[in-house]
Amino acid sequence: MSLINTINTDNLPQHIAIIMDGNGRWAKKQGFLRAFGHENGTKSVRTTVECCAKLGISNLTLYAFSTENWNRPSLEVETLMKLLITSLQKELPTLQKNNIQLNAIGNLELLPESAQKQLLEVIEKTKENSRMILTLALSYGSREEIINAVKNICIKVKNNIISTDNIDELIINQHLYTRNLPDVDLLIRTSGEHRISNFLLWQIAYAELYFTDVLWPDFKEDDLYEAIISYQKRERRFGKTSEQIK
After folding, report:
1. Percent of the chain that is helix, strand, coil (3-state, to 5)
2. pTM for this entry
């Protein structure tokens, strides 16, 4: 029986986030430069996006480039930015065909102007699509996101727009990059690493974590299904007891 047939479509995660790790190691295993791994990783992106849309997942967020990634060798960073531009151009028809809206979070002003332009163009062209929201985390760091949120809230408190007595989770959510997205239900990380790596720290407070040894370019349809099946076997209690949930 195909794995997709064992998935309970009445118990799907509303928001899946993925740390796409292992491109460089995959390339080295093949005897190629790291750039070759990044290029092949785009195939797994397309597969994952299409599979999530087919299943009925409402939100998919992919960790594409972190704030820390700017510290990588300049040639690799340049390659990643060029790959971002070409991938956006190439995948626009796929997004339109599957009725997928593109979104982006992070310090986008740090991206090269050409990348910003292409990104905003695809976001604009897909803004009416409603089947699924695909969010790319680019130049993203969760600590920076939270620091910016705190600063903006402080400014509003200083200007008497917000009272300190009214600061709660909702107020903080409204000042995050992800203000229009639900919390993450399932976080997947590939390549065998067991770290969060400064990704959506606030948003994964009650997410189910799934780690796989599969390197990102090898992440296929069944790997996604296995992660969702694992999620569906877990009891999500949100601080309550099993008896209360039942």
Report:
1. 50, 15, 35
2. 0.96
